[in-house]
Specification:
By secondary structure, the protein is an alpha/beta fold. It folds into two domains: about 240 residues, Quinone Oxidoreductase, Chain A, domain 1 (Alpha-Beta Complex), CATH 3.90.180; about 140 residues, NAD(P)-binding Rossmann-like Domain (Rossmann fold), CATH 3.40.50.720. Strands 3, 5, 6, 7, 8, 19 and 20 form a seven-stranded mixed beta sheet that branches. The termini are close together. Helix 11 links the parallel strand 15 and strand 16. Helices cover about 25% and strands about 25% of the residues. Helix 6 packs across helix 7, helix 6 packs across helix 12 and helix 7 packs parallel to helix 8. The model has no long low-confidence stretch (mean pLDDT about 95).
């Protein structure tokens, strides 16, 4: 098996963290905690409800970059939770089932699949019985996130950044007929965008700002116009090609210039009051903001650009604690809603996985991912892909690794 994984080696993780802060070229050397191996033995299926998948391709996302830079902080809620010795990277994948266990009924050899439940839990570890959240389809809230694997000797599982991998069948989603392989690698990130809108639906007439229009933000633009056509959307994005794509996908305005001045102009806010050290504040603002950037600046700025009782949808993150002025949160009675990927949705009277809803929308021409995949790399060239992802190049939207 050829695969890429994050190794839980504390000295190496500390070295990776240091390199990310003071000497980025060292990230692309052998000291990095992310490793590539091309000779791991292919493991047998550990139980009858598992399958083996031959990967075709897999996208690169911010989570993969976070592992490559070892950004998870000791002040993060993730840190104290027990983890495995290896975390296999890649979850925006498409692959073909090549082997099924004796208990698998929902998949067969030849089916195309993508990983649905990537975070450690019942549906990725094969834990039975499932916790109530996983049983209900909300696998990202799994109560067994820190529980040990039922198969402690199973270490070489692989994931999306592998030529093949093994997985519990219930943690995978079948790729629909009519969905191309390139569209399939976009299903998971599209699910994040759609879930971000459906988990707290905007009301008619809302003025909405999307901060950051990479893959997720661009998906939110069009999801908003599907779920609530009667809203006005501003997209905050610097690169010209992403501005053009945001407009094509339904953004009403491109948000450029000083955030405070632009918000007052867009929403009819008050005078901007200026204090010491560049501190500014005004009254009024957007009804809703989707923060797809994360970090100190984005949080600090977002809560100041919302109107009283406005809503901050927290999508972007960096897996460590941040600092921002919380005064507007209590003063203006703001709502803060976190978004954790995807799960189970209610849409037009049906309950279904986000993965099924998104594939329906893509298949039926309601939601598009055309033009999102901008770059391809071979699996073994993942460092080149990472370098491009971290460069901030304006023409990059989605980078894909070809796994064979």
């Amino acid at each position: 098996m050829k695969t890429i994984y994050f190794e839980k080696d504390i000295p190496r993780i500390l070295a990776t963290k240091a390199a990310a802060k003071v000497c980025k070229p060292l990230l692309f050397t052998s000291l990095n905690a992310v490793k590539y191996r091309d000779n791991l033995p292919d493991p047998p299926l550990p139980a009858g409800d598992w399958v083996r998948v031959k990967n075709i391709a897999c996208g690169l996302c911010g989570t993969d970059v976070s592992f490559f830079k070892a950004t998870t902080g000791t002040n993060s809620a993730l840190e104290p939770i027990p983890g495995s010795a290896r975390t296999y990277l890649g979850h925006e994948n498409v692959g073909v089932v090549t082997e099924v266990g004796s208990q698998v009924t929902e998949l067969q050899v030849g089916d195309r699949v993508t990983i649905r439940a990537y975070m450690a839990g019942c549906d990725s570890k094969g834990i039975s019985p499932r916790c109530p959240y996983c049983e209900a389809g909300d696998y990202n809230f799994c109560l067994n996130y820190g529980a040990p694997s039922p198969y402690p000797g199973l270490t070489n599982t692989g994931a999306g950044w592998s030529d093949s991998f093994i997985y519990p069948a219930r943690g995978l989603a079948k790729v629909y007929d009519g969905i191309t392989d390139e569209q399939a690698v976009m299903v998971e990130p599209s699910c994040v965008s759609v879930h971000s809108v459906l988990c707290d639906r905007p009301k008619a007439g809302e003025k909405i700002l999307i901060m950051g229009c990479g893959t997720i933000g661009l998906g939110i633009v069009q999801a908003l116009k599907i779920v609530q056509p009667d809203c006005e959307v501003w997209a905050m994005v610097r690169s010209k090609n992403k501005q053009e794509l945001a407009k094509k996908l339904g953004a009403d305005h491109i948000f450029v210039g000083d955030p405070y001045e632009q918000t007052v102009k867009a929403t009819g806010g008050s005078e901007i009051y200026k204090g010491m050290a560049g501190n500014r504040y005004f009254f009024g603002g957007f009804d809703r903001i989707y923060d797809c950037i994360g970090g100190d600046w984005a949080n600090h700025t977002a809560v100041r650009l919302l109107k009283a009782r406005g809503t901050l949808m927290k999508v972007g993150h960096h897996m460590n604690a941040i600092s921002f002025d919380e005064t507007p949160v209590w003063w203006q009675e703001l709502r803060l809603i976190g978004v954790d990927a995807h799960g189970m949705e209610t849409w037009e009277g049906r309950k279904l996985y986000t993965f099924d809803l998104v594939q329906e929308w893509i298949r039926d021409g309601k939601y598009t991912v055309d033009g999102f995949v901008t770059h391809h790399f071979k699996l073994e060239d993942y460092k080149k892909a990472m370098k491009l992802a971290m460069s901030g190049a304006p023409d990059v939207i989605k980078i894909v690794l070809d796994c064979q």
